[in-house]
Amino acid sequence: KRPSDRVGLILFGEHPYLQAPLTLDTTAVTKLLDNSLPGMAGDATAIGDAIGLAVKNLRQRPAASSAIILLTDGEDNASSIPPMQAAKLAQQYGIRIYTIVVGRDGLAPFPDGHGGFIMTSSSVDTTLTREIAETTGGAFYTASDQKSLEKIYDQIDSLERTPSEKTRPLVIRRPLFQYPMGLSLLLLGILSLAEQIRK
Question: Considering Cα of 52, then 57, then 63, then 67, what sign does the dihedral take?
Answer without folding.
Answer: negative
